[in-house]
Amino acid sequence: MADQQHQQLTWRGSVARWDRALFDMVARRHWPGADRVLPRLGRAANHGVLWGGTAVALTAFGSARARKAALRGIASLALASATINTVGKWSVRRPRPLLDGVPAVRQLSTQPQTTSFPSGHSASAFAFTAGLALESPGWGAVLAPVAASVAFSRVYTGVHYPSDVAAGAALGVAAGFVVRRLARDAQEARVSPGDERTAAGAPALPDGAGLTVVVNTGSGTAANAGLDVLRSRLPRAEVIECAGPGLAAALEEAASRAAVLGVCGGDGTVNAAATAALTAGLPLAVFPGGTLNHFALDLGLGGAEDTCRAVAAGQAVHVGVGRFAPGPEGRPGYFLNNFSIGAYPELLRHRLRWSPRIGSGPAALLAAWRVLRAQRPVRLRLAGRPRSVWLLFAGNGTYHGTGPAPRRRESLGEGLLDVRLVHGGGRPGPRMLAAALAGPLSRSPVHVATRLRSLRVGDIPPGTPLAYDGEYADAPSSLVLDELPDALTVYRPR
Fold first, then answer.
1. N or C: which end of the chain has fewer CB within 10 A?
2. Peptide bond into 103 cis (omega under 30)
3. Rounded percentage of the chain residues whose pLDDT exceeds 70
């Protein structure tokens, strides 16, 4: 026992000497420009202000994936901060380094009063960046150098030993992984079937014979994972891999000869498959393979495994489908999630135009800035009455949650459109925020929400864009929105 204690003290002494040696080496080293930049960067990260501001910017101007990543980052930061401030610092109680040898120009005007181990700034920086990167690797790569610079600034200004920073960074990364696991568990808990009517007569295909599945290979790793499950569980299913402009034609051709049409991809791909299935009168098997999978989650499908089980057993339900007519190329268009005219389609149009040149993340920020700065309300006629709107939103079924464009439905069999308007006037940003605070199914000076079977939209200005399930098109001069109850049969396990 005494030998073990002696070895432990010897090891701690060696670590402390190496720690101090590295600290002194940093203090002696001069990096041009660092004396101006690193202390200011560290102060900007006080109390998480730098990371909170970044999250606000991504939420306001980023894509849906960027917003989700920002939320994960903030949750990771909160978990890391709570752990360090309640357990880490008070369990070790390591004194702050002595400032001997640290140039006065680097030292903070107000020295921290808490204990040194581990570094809270490093934990917050790496927690936010890890949470962001695990959802959006592109944004994580952008912020990783900033996080590393904040962590290094704590040694550079003399308030932490290198081991404090390393331990804080490790705890931050761990917090990011914990939050990702909790988010996945929450998502799985959210996947609960609604009260859609059971579809009798959907064919049972135990080995997949008669099922033709079109896979959007452009959907990424999620589609590839779904494809692996499909081939394992339904080995006789025909699989067609496709991407890009040929996707719609591949779905139509598959529907012309299949007993059941399957699709693996995101919401836009599922929309195209639903259109082909409706036209051919076929049941649809959805294998979630996109980033968000709103339709699959609202239906109660947690992944490809659920769909395989339902197809094998012949378990399916009827769901409603939203329709707008005329749609693209003069034919009716359909939406499984939502339809919109106004600010969101304009943002989508700019993002799709710029993303091939500058990337999806910067394109989303630039598109949001353009819309909030230059967008004008759309003047049109709704149910025969002239209106000026920032946004017309129509959901396939009632969405729950506040705001003009909420995200969750409990049933796809209701047979009603969830129609929400943000009235014109003022600037789009304040109007959208006021509508978000107005609550669901409310009437206010800026926001109206109601449920309808159909809605006629007329006098649409030329060049006005519309969006449906994340797809973009130019709107006709007039159209009719309506709901088709129980129009589509979709496989879902009981």
1. N
2. no
3. 82
